[in-house]
Every structure is written in C-alpha cells, then in structure tokens.
Amino acid sequence: MIILASVLQVDFVNQEMVDLLKNIPDMTWTPGIPAIFAGKSEEEVFMMIGDTNINFQHDLEPDLLEKEAAMETQELLEKAVLPDSFSWFDLKPECMRVRHITLYNESTGIMKTCPAYWAFASVGVFGDNRCILGRDPVRVNYSEQYRISCDNYAIDKIYSHCITGSNNYYHWFMTGNGLPTEACISYKGEYHNNYTKICPTECDDGSAIVTTTLGINKYYDGFLYKPNDISKEDLMKQYMMKFGSLLGSFDVYYDYLFYQNGIYQHKTGSLQYNQPVIIVGWGIENGVKYWLCRQNWGELWGESGDQDPENYDQLGYFRILRGVNHCNIEETCYIYEV
C-alpha cells in the first residue's frame, strides 16, 4: 500500500498573530491580514517582498562639496518655517503614483520572482519629483526594469538584482545612463530570463531607447548629511519641501506584515529585512508624530495617502512614528535634484 503524505501549509500572516497584536495596549495602528498575504506561506510572502537585507547603508565619507551643501542646508533651516504637517499627496496628488506590481504571470499562474523593490523605490522617487517640480508636464512612469537589468553599480552578480541591490550609487547610474519610460521597457518580473541578466539595447517594440537623466549637482550623491545642531527630522522636512519625495529605508519586523492602517510602531516579532521606501510627507495625529510613506506592494495594501478609509483608489501608503529614528526610518535618506 502506498501512503501519500501531504504537508499542511501554514499561513505566515495568520490570525493568531492578529489576535496577539490586538491585545497589546496603546496600539496606534490596526493589525489584520492584508489581502496580498492571505493564504500565503512564509516562502511565498518573501518571494513577493524580497527575502534579503537590502544593501542600503551609506558607507562613503562626505567630500568637500557635500560638506558645503550641508552648511548651506543649515543656513536654509535657520530661516525655514516648518509646518506641523506637510504632504505631497495633498499638494500634488497627480504626481503620487502607487506602482502596482503584478507578481503572477497571468498566462501560466506562476509567481514572478524578481520583486527588486530597491529599484521600484528609486525609480518612483524620480518620477514623483520630476512631476512635482514641473520637469515633466504630467506624471511619467519610468522603467524599473531598465535599472534592474542595466545598473552595474548596484548589481549583485549572484541574484541579478532581483532580491538584493543598492541605492548607494544611484546618482552615478542616473547621471550617466538615466531611465527610459515604462512604455519603452516594461517590467518583466521573472528571475530566470534574460531581462534580469542582459541590459536591453532597444525598446520592447524595437524602437530606440531614449533616457532621461539626473542633472549634475552640488549635492553629489544625494545622501542627507546632517549639519551641526540640526535634527535629522528637520533636515528631512526641509529637503522634502524643497525637492520632493525622499528615498529612504526602514527595518521591517514581522508585525509590520500585519499593518492595515494607523501610525506603525514596532511591537513584537523579529527583524525580517530592510526595505526601501518613499517618504512623501509628515504630520501628527492624537499627539503622535508620523512620516507618511509609500510602499511598493501595490494598491491592495495599506491605507490611503489622505487616510480616508473610503478612498480605495489610493491605497499603498503607511504612516510610521517620526522623530525618534523608529526602525531606522531616519537613518539613511537620499534626495536628488531632478
């Protein structure tokens, strides 16, 4: 007699953890099971969001130009009036694009294995800020796939950019190469194909690639060096008001996977990895200060950018505690003059 053994799948984002979180006092956010994670195993969840630590730490010493930029920033901040709340979502909603990443091949039903969220965050900031500052007359969708396939500064030869990458040298790629539009080179998503191994030399339709680059500017690599006597929080605010969305990162703990709405504060669960994120504003609610951020998990996750529970068309945002470097959200931020 042959006995067929079956393995019972354990949902990684499960009701047991939801119940635990709901019993924690003084919660400032609502836990639940996001639709994108429902019924998924641990392996499937991390295939969707990236099972690795993103190399996002800035390891370069500031040069003279960066130090001069920091001194000028200090002078600007001494004259600046920073409001209690500010949001590019409110001021320029037409520029805030929540990127919907299709993680399944619709024809085969097989999950795609190249999330590359480090690339989605940096390309998203580029598109945001060209729209915010009027460099593009409308919000242009630029190609994440081109950066995934072509940015040799950030490449991890083993993983072909799919689950690990770096934004440390983003400015080098963007000033030297730049990005075409998504209409030229669309997101392919599969790990085991040439799109993640070979930089394309023409658009998907065979036409010539035309790229848009960053300007050469005195802020060099965009890393926010903190001048003396200025808080990193105020520095981030000032740059955000002047240049647009910030490119940042934060530490993702297990409980964050259960976020539905509110101001996230880590309560329980182990560190999973570090996630790139787009910071678009700040505010305060019931005395709790927060950053408003856009995640790259699509519009079926998170809360609306204006926190309206009925605004289902603008999901993809979350808020996180501000001013205390919670989950290292204020540790490493970049801004670029587009």
TrEMBL record:
It holds the Pfam family Peptidase_C1. SUPFAM superfamilies: Cysteine proteinases (SSF54001). SMART domains: Pept_C1 (SM00645). InterPro entries: Papain-like_cys_pep_sf (IPR038765), Peptidase_C1A (IPR013128), Peptidase_C1A_C (IPR000668). It comes from the Eukaryota. Residues 82-338 form the Peptidase C1A papain C-terminal domain. Belongs to the peptidase C1 family. This is Cathepsin_B. It comes from Hexamita inflata.
